[in-house]
Amino acid sequence: MSVSKITTDKVKERMDIEEIVSDYVPLKKKGQNLWACCPFHGEKTPSFSISPAKQIYKCFGCGKAGDPIQFIMDIEGIGFQEAIRHLAGKYGIEVEEDETRTPEQEQAQSERESLLIALGFARDFFVKNLQTEEGRSIGLSYFKERGFNPSIIEKFDLGYALEGWDNLLKAAKAAGFQEDILLKAGLVLQKEGDPQRLYDRFRGRVIFPIHNISGKPIGFGARILTKDKNQPKYINSPETAVYHKSDVLYGMFQAKKAIRDKDNCYLVEGYTDVISMHLSGIENVVASSGTSLTEGQIKLIKRFTDQVTVLYDGDAAGIKASLRGIDLLLEGGLNVKAVVFPEGEDPDSYSRKVGSQAFQDYLNQNSKDFIGFKIGLYKDDIAHDPIRKAELIKEVVQSIGKIPDPIIRSVYAKEASGLLEIEEEIIHAELNKSLLKVQKDSYFKEKENAEAEAALEELLPVEKETSFSEILRLQEREMIRLLVNYGWKKLDEQEIHLCQYLLSETEELQFDTPIYARILDLYRARLSQNEIPGSDFFLSVNDQEVKKEIIDLITPRHEVSTHWTEKHQIIISSETDDLTLTGFKTILRLKRKFVQKMMEEAKLKIKNAELEKLDDEQVIELQEIYFALKKVQVEIDKELGIVIG
After folding, report:
1. Domain termination residue (choose one: 243, 270, 290)
2. How many CB atoms lie within 10 A of CB 99?
3. How many of the other CB atoms lie within 10 Å of CB of 227?
4. Which residue, of 218, 243, 268, is where some domain finishes?
5. pLDDT digits (tens, 9 = 90+) for 361-404
6. 487 contacts 497 by C-beta, under 8 angstroms
7. Is the pTM of this model over 0.70?
8. Is the domain of 115 the same as that of 96?
9. Are 481 and 520 in contact (CB under 8 A)?
10. CB contact burial 239-272 (16+ within 10 A = b; e otherwise)
11. Do 553 and 634 share a domain, yes or no?
12. How many CA atoms lie within 13 A of 420 on its CB side?
C-alpha cells in the first residue's frame, strides 16, 4: 500500500531541511544559508548549500539538489514512499495507508526496499529468539556475562540465531517473503550441489545487527559461542544492494549525535568494544569491524566531525602493523589522536576491568596527537640506532605530508622537530621533497591521462569550444532564471510585471532546450490562471528534472557579505537594481542567438543548394533572408554595445 496524501501533506508541513540534513552532516551558517561538505561526493571544501528559507539543498560540486524528501531519497537510496515513511517516523507522524491502490502500487516494492524490509524482519526474529529457552540459556547468558544490561541489548538490537538449519527461512516464508529476496539479503544460502535447497546463514550464534545511518538493519555480524575449530569465530553478511562494508561503521547510528556534540569520534575495532564503551558512558564511538579502514568509512566520520581518536589494543606489533590507517585518516582531512591500552587489554576488557569513570579518565589522560604517538611508539627502537631514527624521520614526514591543510602541516613539523631533536629546517626540507614528489607523480599521471584522452579524441572526435547550441541553451536558461526569481516584480515606473514583458517579447520564439521549453509551458499555463508562479510552484510539481533545474536557478553560488555595505560602505550593484535594463538585455541576447541560428540555417541551405535542388530564385530569396537577419543582428549588437571588428 502507498502512503496516503494526508500523511504526505503532514510530513511536508512538519519537515525542516536543517533538522533533516544535520542528522547526516554538520552544518555551518554563512550568510543566509547553511554549508557543509557534500555527503554525496568526496570534498574538503564545503560546496553543499542548504537554504532554510526555501527548504532546498544544492551541491555546487556534484550537482545534487532537491527538497528534504529528495535528500532522504538520495542519501538513503530509497523511493518516495519509503522516504515519506522515514520522515513520518522521525517526526512521530502516524502513517495512514491509501486504500485506493493503482496497478503500479500493486506491484512489488523495489528490490532495495524489499531487502530492507526482509532484513528488518530478520532483526526482529533474532531479537525475539532471546526470549526462547535456547536464546535465554545461550545468547542472553553470554550478553549478561559481558555485562550487557537490557537497555544496551535493546539499544543495539542484539539477538540470537537458533540452532537448526532453517528457523529463519521457515519464519520468513510464512511471513510472505520470497526466497530470492532472502538470498539477495544474505540471510540464507544455497546448498552446494543442490541450489534448490536453502538454509540459514546464521545458526547457533549471538547476533550483532549492523545499521545504516538512519537506523535500519542492513547486515549482521554473528559470533559463535562454542569452541568449534571448524567454524570461524565471526561470520558476517555478504555485500548486498544495501550493505557495502567499505562504507559502513558499526555503531554510527547510535553514535552520530554524540560524535557531533563531542566533536570527536573514537575509532575501535570490534562490536563489543563499541557496546562496552557505551556502557561506560562514552557514546561517540564506532568500529571498523576488524577490516582495514577505507576511504568510504573516513568520509562517513567526516560527516560528523573533523576529530578522530584511534583506540589501540595493548599489542605493540599489532599497532605498528596498522599505522597505515592513521595516514589514511590524515589524508582524509581528519585531525588524529591515538590512545594505547595496557599490554593485553582492549577497550572492552579494560572498561570492564577498571569501571566507567577510571576508563574515561584513562582516555583523557593518555590521548596523544599522531606525531607524539608515532614517535613514542618507536622511542626504544631509535634510542641507539641512528639509521632507524633517520627512517622514522622520513616516515613521520610522509605522514605529515598527507595533511591537506598547510598550516596544520607546519604546526606538526615544528612538533616533530622538538620530539625527534632535529632542526625544524631539516623537517621542512624533507617535507618539501615529499610534497614535490607527490606533485610530480600527480603531474605525470595527469599527463599520461591527457595523452590517452588525446589519442582517444583522434579516434572519436569530440566538439571543441562552447558550441552554438550550448550558448543558445545558456541564453534560454537566463530568461527562465529571471522568470522564476523575479517574474512577479513590477518594472520601474511601469504597471507591468517582468514576466509579462519577457513573455510578450518571446511569444514567437520556440525554445530549443527541452527542459526550459517545459518550464516555460508550465509558467505560461499557470499565468493563464491569473497566478504568477514562483519557485514554490515549480518545487511542488511532480517532475524531478524540473525541480532539480529550478533549484539550480534559484540557488546562488556566492552571497555578498553584508560587511561590504554595513562596515566598509561599499555599494555592490545587483541585477534587481534595474530589472527593466536586466530584462531588456536578456531579451536582446536571446533574440541575437535566435537570429544567428536562423542565419546559420539560411547559410547552410545556400551552401547545399545543389544538393537540396534549389533553383536560382530560391537561392536569391535565401540570400535576402540572410542579409535581412544580418541587419537585425547589427542593430541588436549596437543596443548591446557589441563591437564587431
Report:
1. 243
2. 8
3. 7
4. 243
5. 999 998 988 888 888 877 777 777 888 888 888 888 888 888 87
6. yes
7. no
8. no
9. no
10. ebebbebeebbbbbbbbbebbbebebbbbbbbbb
11. yes
12. 32
Closest CA to 356 of 147, 560, 537, 197: 147
Question: What cell does 76 get?
Answer: 538513503
- Which residue reads 570534498 in cell numbers? 43
For residue 246, give the H/E element and its range: none
Query: What's the grid cell of residue 180?
Result: 530470492
User: Is there a single domain that holds both residue 481 and residue 628?
Assistant: yes
Extract the C-alpha cell encoding 101. 491502490
Cα separation, 567 vs 288, whole angstroms: 49
Name the β-bridge partners of 219: 210
The whole-angstrom separation of Cα 323 and Cα 370 is: 10
Measure the CA–CA gap between 616 and 639, rounded to whole angstroms. 35
User: Which residues are within 8 A (CB) of 560 and not within 5 positions of it... i.e. 6 or more apart?
Assistant: 572
End-to-end alpha carbon distance in the chain: 67
Same domain, 114 and 131: yes
Q: What are the percentages of helix, strand and coil residues in the chain, rounded to 5? A: 55, 15, 35
Give the range of the structural domain holding residue 535, as residue numbers without chain letter: 468-557+564-640
Do 125 and 146 share a domain, yes or no? yes
The verdict on 174 and 54 lying in the same domain is no
Higher pLDDT, 328 or 471: 328
Let me know how long the chain is. Answer: 645
> Does residue 449 have a pLDDT over 60?
no
pLDDT surpassing 50 at residue 145: yes
Whether residue 143 is contained in a domain is answered as yes
DSSP string of 476-535, one letter each residue: HHHHHHHHHHHTTSBPTT-SSBHHHHHHHHTTT---SSHHHHHHHHHHHHHHTTT----H
31-39 mean pLDDT? 85
Q: Which residues contact 3 (CB under 8 A, 6 or more apart)?
A: 81, 84, 85, 88, 95, 96, 97, 98
What are residue 453's phi and psi, to 5 degrees? -65, -40
Q: What is the DSSP letter of 620?
A: H
CA distance linking residue 109 with residue 79, whole number of Å? 9
| Domains in the chain, number | 3
Cα separation, 486 vs 502, whole angstroms: 11
Check if the beta carbon of residue 114 is closer than 8 Å to that of residue 181.
yes
Is position 204 within any domain?
A: yes
Q: CB neighbours (10 Å) of residue 351? A: 28
Do 176 and 230 lie in one domain? The reply is: yes
Residue 38's identity, in one-letter code, is: C
C-alpha distances out from residue 203 to 121, 161, 348, Å: 16, 5, 25
Residue 109 — pLDDT band, cuts 50, 70, 90?
Answer: very low
Q: Cα(520)–Cα(69) distance, rounded to whole angstroms?
A: 25
Q: Residue 30 falls within a domain, yes or no?
A: yes
What CATH number corresponds to the domain at position 66? 3.90.580.10
Q: Looking at the structure, do residues 531 and 570 belong to the same domain, yes or no?
A: yes
Asked if 172 and 122 touch (Cβ cutoff 8 Å), the reply is yes
DSSP 326-381: HHHHHHTT-EEEEEEEEET--HHHHHHHH-HHHHHHHHHHH-EEHHHHHHHHTHHH
Within a domain: 63: yes
